[in-house]
Specification:
By secondary structure, the chain is of the alpha/beta class. 36% of the residues lie in helices and 18% in strands. Helix 2 runs parallel beside helix 10 and helix 5 packs antiparallel against helix 6.
Length: 287
């Protein structure tokens, strides 16, 4: 029900399930126990296919946000999309025990992989999820096979000042109206999936824990990353300088393929129609 923040848990669940309904019909909902609480994992794809762990962006993004790419990814992988513990979604933190450091996030993801019976996996993340995925690959290299990053934030370049200023009112006092206005600004008025947008609005005021933040990965650590990486950057992203992100990643990562995708924004990228980037992702994973 709605609380002091205006957050309505029932409306959030309805919106969440409506986007989840866009996933393949054979999807499964799993609960994985971790030291920080139970993690919700939405899963689909052949049971004998190699595992792929997907991390959503920050804000109101959840595991179901991968709806536009998941069917194609599930052709080549057993897809496991997680709701980040302590963030909007159906994961359930254990009291006030939630990840507070990058080391905690690594411990949490290791526990998720253990619960799924995966010694290692391919790893993918969008935005803040890309930041988490990259840090995990650096700290647990034996558990990461291939890594793809969709317009990752705070990995290779900082935020644009204009983006932070525009986001500030929404961050200080999130309301559905502020969430919608911010997303419409960042995506340049491009058409947005109404169900996806309704979920972002419903997540306003979600009783989330303070997200783990930190500096960008050290250059020496990036140069030592042995995993193959695919970096897809949104050309119209207002979050950061897209070409600077691609250039710096190319200069630092020893095994990286980069592409700047035209006519797509940072928040529009996850809901891009199948084909591109989904085709690039499956080609990368299957190579």
């Amino acid at each position: 029900m709605a609380g002091d923040t205006g957050y309505d848990s029932e409306a959030f669940r309805v919106a969440y399930d409506k986007v989840l309904a866009k996933w393949p019909a054979e999807r499964e909902a799993l609960t994985v126990a971790t030291p920080f609480g139970d993690t919700r994992v939405n899963t689909c794809g052949p049971r004998d296919a190699p595992p792929l762990l997907l991390l959503p962006g920050g804000g109101g993004a959840t595991s179901v946000s991968w709806y536009a790419q998941v069917a194609q990814l599930a052709r080549v992988r057993r897809v496991h999309a997680v709701d980040v513990i302590g963030a909007p979604g159906l994961s359930a933190p254990a009291g006030d025990r939630h990840p507070r450091t990058v080391a905690d996030l690594t411990l949490w993801l290791d526990a998720v992989l253990d619960g799924l019976g995966a010694a290692s996996a391919d790893l993918g993340g969008h935005s803040y999820g890309g930041w988490i995925a990259l840090h995990h690959a650096l700290r647990a290299p034996a558990r990461t096979r291939r890594l793809f990053l969709l317009d990752p934030t705070q990995c290779f370049a900082g935020y644009k000042a204009a983006y932070l200023l525009r986001a500030l009112p929404m961050l200080l006092r999130p309301t559905p109206r502020r969430v919608r206005a911010f997303l419409e600004w960042e995506t340049g008025g491009a058409p947005l999936d109404p169900d996806w947008l309704a979920l972002q609005e419903a997540a306003a005021g979600f009783p989330a824990a303070k997200p783990v933040t930190g500096p960008r990965p050290a250059p020496d650590a990036l140069r030592a990353l042995d995993a193959r990486v695919l970096l897809l950057v949104a050309a119209n992203s207002r979050t950061h300088d897209a070409r600077a992100v691609a250039s710096r990643a190319t200069a630092l990562l020893p095994h990286v393929e980069t592409a700047v995708l035209p006519d797509v924004s940072h928040h529009g990228l996850p809901q891009s129609a199948p084909g591109d980037p989904a085709r690039r992702l499956t080609d990368f994973l299957a190579a």
